[in-house]
Design a protein that fits this description.
heterodimer, A: 110 residues, mainly beta, 9 strands, B: mainly beta, globular
């Protein structure tokens, strides 16, 4: 099972919006609404920020939103803040009943 | 508040074995699907294994299938990962994770496994 494809880096200035893509196939991202996203700060465990493509767990700011089109899912961070600088990972459940992650995207707030 | 505490990591030679444990509190463990997810130093996340809340289903990544075994003891609120035939490429921080709606909701702080001669 191949990993999902994410851009290695993304950046934006405070207050701007940035979108991170996550591309898979019809066997994972495109076939199911089971995409989730994670934020990881250096030296910390990942944090669950989006599930089922576009749902936010309790306590996650509405600046974080998710969407999907075909085999590509996206995470948008609006109103960028300094504390949003982190690594972001997507994940999807698959037709093989396993899970796959993307390679991660390092978000820099300029 | 959910707490997941991993233990059992350490240094082991290639071909060796280790058993990781994850003790859970603050949740109804017997109703939770659980995962192991690992992260090699400086690298991304890799899903390793899943066990259904009632032990009825277990799934493994191809990279560990046949070498690793996931199990759980619900009365003890504990999950395990038996790792055999360890390879250098298994070196990673291993996270215990509570599943939620096909995602990974709550994470432990991880236990480090180093495979080296």
């Amino acid at each position: 099972q191949s990993a999902l494809t994410q851009p290695p880096s993304a950046s934006g200035s405070p207050g701007q919006s940035v979108t991170i893509s996550c591309t898979g196939s019809s066997s994972d991202v495109g076939g199911y609404n089971q995409v989730s996203w994670y934020q990881q700060h250096p030296g910390k465990a990942p944090k669950f920020i989006i599930y089922e493509v576009n749902k936010r767990p309790s306590g996650v700011p509405d600046r974080f939103s998710g969407s999907k089109s075909g085999n590509t899912a996206s995470l948008t961070v609006s109103g960028l803040q300094a504390e949003d600088e982190a690594d972001y990972y997507c994940s999807s459940h698959t037709a093989s009943r396993i899970w796959v992650f993307g390679g991660g995207t390092k978000l820099t707030v300029l | 508040q959910v707490q997941l505490v991993e233990s059992g990591g350490g240094v082991v030679q290639p071909g060796g074995s280790l058993r990781l444990s994850c003790t859970a509190s603050g949740l109804t463990f017997s109703r939770a699907g659980m995962h192991w997810v690992r992260q090699a130093p400086g690298k991304g996340l890799e899903w390793v294994a899943f066990i259904q809340f009632d032990d009825s289903r277990k799934n493994y990544a191809d990279s560990v299938k046949g070498r690793f075994t996931i199990s759980r003891d619900n009365p003890k609120n504990t999950m395990y990962l038996q790792m055999n035939s360890l390879r250098v490429e298994d070196t990673a921080l291993y996270y215990c994770v509570k599943g939620y709606s096909y995602g990974f909701e709550d994470w432990g702080q991880g236990t480090l496994v180093t495979v080296s001669s």
